[in-house]
Amino acid sequence: xxxxxxxxxxxxxxxxxxxxxxxxxxxxxxxxxxxxxxxxxxxxxxxxxxxxxxxxxxxxxxxxxxxxxxxxxxxxxxxxxxxxxxxxxxxxxxxxxxxxxxxxxxxxxxxxxxxxxxxxxxxxxxxxxxxxxxxx
Length: 136
Prior knowledge:
Layout lengths: L15 H8 L4 E5 L21 E5 L3 E10 L11 E8 L4 E5 L13 E8 L5 E7 L4
Antiparallel strand pairs: 1-2, 3-4, 3-6, 4-5, 6-7
């Protein structure tokens, strides 16, 4: 791997539909056909009841920041020396880690609403990230 290349997902059978939807700038989540549980990341089996019967549902793309981590050390050359990562609780329930784009990451705070945006990093991979959103 090139030192300046950021780590990227390698889609597999468990999450290929998620990454294909993200490439189309659609945010989908797996939902269990047996118990209705919605989860992330997209595993092949429901983490609640272990059923393998799942469907992909369009997610709202909205959530609330549940945690903020600011790194003041450059761990990888592909990330800036000061880097903010947020933990977002999605409106559908699951949590996801992401970056803040299209907004000042230093303004990210717990309890703040966010909405999904997509970062096209290669012709094959678009990463769901978040931007700060006005309160509803």
